[in-house]
Each structure stands twice: as structure tokens, then as C-alpha cells.
């Protein structure tokens, strides 16, 4: 066995060993990558007062980066009740939770410790978010940073006052923009079209009336804030009721829709369905009855567990009918709801 062959063999064995280790590292890397969060998905605030809105079963924005001493206020604009329950990663068993927040209620907390916080809604635990305070040691391990770019600057937004109903085009002028630069209006992202390093074309989101900061962020997390520079004005479009209906609908927290809808006027139907955004379990049910509470049909879980359904509705005479349902969630909580429709 000559020396050259021996060296080649050693290199080959080393290469195989390295590949095996690399495969393991790649698996670890992939798991780590899934747990990390892109820097551009975290909104950095320079202000010492920040507001997070709860709407449509979500925290907006869910992940923020703030300075020590910043006061964060959660505002519930949703139609259902929520709580805010949080803990820091150093002491995960010590949980701080707000009172139940009804529509319009607020909860504030001042974050003084330089650490990372996780938080959820105690009523709807699938709603979650995170708060990075200062620059804790674990920040680099949590974040997945993009290639470093020059921080963006913004000179103007035209127009800077648009309708609350959204869908308007605004032009952002500045410098150092790149592809995937985001434009953030208070708590919602606009739909950004990158024109060049000095121009962004943005379609505005629907937003309630408010004068606000706008934050422009590059993929590496560098950002520029225009304080109090943009305004949504007017009144939100109200859904027009097809009929003036005397019966009130009662919705459960996870309710997302029904067929027929509350107040619908229909000629006939064969099925009744209710949909949720969170699975229900056995024991949940739905009942069709007349206004004298005489049961006409009943049903239970939909096949995907994200709803309830009555699959065989009998022929109904003209009149008003009531659908009541009892929904039980995986966490053990249960809620009752009802809605009405008319057969013409």
C-alpha cells in the first residue's frame, strides 16, 4: 500500500465522517431554523409607549422589540373577550395575566427587565405573541437575520391621509430600500411593491380612523420610523343587513360563520352548518327548532371537527326558525350560541 493511496483513503474516510456529522448538524440546524423568527417579522419601536391591538382572534402586531421601560398597551377591538397572559423565558412558571378584556377594554404593563417574553390569550391559547426587551443575550439565538443592508430612510409618503376602508395606493420616497422592505401602519402591514432603492408603492390595509407612526423595515431588521405621519380617516363601512331582523344572534368565541347566516331569508335548505376556527370535541351538538322550541332536527361534529352540522333538514314551512348549538373545546371550556333564519 503506497503512501498516496493511504492518504487518499484517510481523506475518503474523513469525508464520510464529515458528511455524517454534517447530516446531523443539518437536522439540528433545520429544527433550530423552524424555532427561529425572521428579524423582519419583529417590529422594532423607538417610542416608550406601544399599542398592540386584539382583533379577529389575533395580536397585531404579534412580535415586537422595545426598549427597557416601555409601556405596552393591549386594546381589545375584537367582538369577543380576551386576556393577556405572559411570562419571561428565564422564569416561565411565573405568569402575569390581565383581567378579562371586553370589547374596548385596555391593559397596560411596563417592561423593565431586559429579557424575552412569550404571551398568549388565556381564553384563546392559539393566539400568541412575543416581546423582546432591550438586547438580551438570547436574542441572537432566537432571531434569523438577513444579510446586512444599509438602514432605510424615508423622506415622504404621498398621500399621507387616506380612507379607513384601505385599498389606496401610496408612494413612499426615501433611500436604501431593498426587495422585501416592509411598510407597517400602526399594527398592520401594507402590500408593498418594490420599485427601486428610492421608491416603494404600497396598497394600504383597512384600518380604523387614527393618526399614527409608520415604520419602514429592511429584511435585516434595520428600520426607520416616521412619527405621527400618516392618517386613516372617515368611518368604517358597515355591513348592510338584507332585512331588519328582530332576533338577536349569540355567538361563541371561536365562531367564524354559518349557513344559513343569521337573518337570512331562504326558500329551502337541506343542511345547516356552523364553522369555528378551533376544533370542537364529542359532546358538542346543534339543534334546529321552531319558535316554540319544538325540536325539528339535530346534528353534531363536522368531519374536520372545525364545525357542527345538521345533514338532513326536514321540509320547513314558511316562518322563522332557531338554531342553537353547544360547542366544547379541547381545553374543556364550553359555550352556547344561537342564530335565526326565515323560510319564505
How many domain modules?
3
Distance between the termini: 96 Å
Shape: globular
The major pleated sheet works out as: 8 strands, mixed
Relevant CATH superfamily of the largest domain: Cupredoxins -  blue copper proteins
How would you briefly describe this protein structure?
The protein has 344 residues and is mostly beta strands. It has 2 helices and 29 strands.
Report on this structure.
- The chain is mainly beta and 344 residues long.
- The protein has two helices and 29 strands.
- The protein has three domains: 22-145, Cupredoxins -  blue copper proteins (Immunoglobulin-like, Sandwich), CATH 2.60.40; 147-238, Sandwich (Immunoglobulin-like), CATH 2.60.40; 255-343, Sandwich (Immunoglobulin-like), CATH 2.60.40.
- It has an eight-stranded mixed sheet, with no helix packed on it. A six-stranded mixed sheet has the order 2-5-11-10-7-8, with no helix packed on it. A five-stranded mixed sheet has the order 14-21-20-16-17, with no helix packed on it.
- β7 and β8 (96-97) form a beta hairpin.
- The longest helix is centred in the first third of the chain and has 33 residues, at 3-35.
- The model is unreliable at 1-35 and 238-243 (pLDDT under 50).
Amino acid at each position: 500500500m503506497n503512501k498516496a493511496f493511504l492518504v487518499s483513503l484517510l481523506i475518503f474516510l474523513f469525508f464520510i465522517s464529515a458528511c455524517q456529522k454534517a447530516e446531523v448538524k443539518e437536522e439540528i440546524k433545520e429544527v433550530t431554523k423552524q424555532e427561529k423568527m425572521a428579524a423582519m417579522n419583529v417590529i422594532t419601536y423607538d417610542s416608550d409607549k406601544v399599542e398592540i391591538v386584539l382583533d379577529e382572534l389575533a395580536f397585531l402586531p404579534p412580535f415586537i422589540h422595545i426598549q427597557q421601560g416601555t409601556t405596552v398597551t393591549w386594546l381589545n377591538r375584537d367582538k369577543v373577550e380576551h386576556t393577556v397572559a405572559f411570562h419571561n423565558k428565564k422564569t416561565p412558571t411565573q405568569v402575569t395575566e390581565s383581567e378579562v378584556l371586553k370589547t374596548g377594554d385596555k391593559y397596560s404593563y411596563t417592561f423593565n427587565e431586559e429579557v424575552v417574553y412569550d404571551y398568549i390569550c388565556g381564553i384563546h391559547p392559539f393566539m400568541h405573541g412575543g416581546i423582546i426587551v432591550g438586547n438580551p443575550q438570547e436574542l441572537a439565538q432566537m432571531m434569523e437575520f438577513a444579510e446586512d443592508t444599509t438602514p432605510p430612510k424615508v423622506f415622504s409618503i404621498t398621500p399621507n391621509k387616506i380612507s379607513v376602508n384601505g385599498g389606496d395606493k401610496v408612494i413612499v420616497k426615501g433611500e436604501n430600500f431593498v426587495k422585501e422592505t416592509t411598510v407597517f401602519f400602526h399594527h398592520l402591514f401594507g402590500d408593498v411593491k418594490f420599485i427601486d432603492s428610492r421608491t416603494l408603492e404600497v396598497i394600504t390595509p383597512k384600518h380604523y380612523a387614527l393618526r399614527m407612526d409608520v415604520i419602514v423595515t429592511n429584511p435585516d431588521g434595520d428600520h426607520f420610523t416616521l412619527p405621527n405621519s400618516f392618517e386613516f380617516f372617515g368611518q368604517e363601512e358597515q355591513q348592510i343587513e338584507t332585512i331588519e331582523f328582530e332576533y338577536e344572534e349569540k355567538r361563541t368565541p371561536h365562531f367564524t360563520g354559518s349557513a344559513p347566516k343569521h337573518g337570512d331569508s331562504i326558500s329551502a335548505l337541506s343542511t345547516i352548518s356552523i364553522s369555528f376556527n378551533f376544533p370542537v370535541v364529542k359532546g358538542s351538538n346543534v339543534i334546529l327548532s321552531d319558535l316554540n322550541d319544538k325540536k325539528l332536527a339535530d346534528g353534531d361534529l363536522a368531519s374536520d371537527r372545525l364545525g357542527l352540522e345538521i345533514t338532513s333538514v326536514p321540509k320547513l314551512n314558511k316562518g322563522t326558525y332557531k338554531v342553537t348549538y353547544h360547542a366544547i373545546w379541547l381545553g374543556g371550556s364550553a359555550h352556547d350560541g344561537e342564530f335565526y333564519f326565515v323560510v319564505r
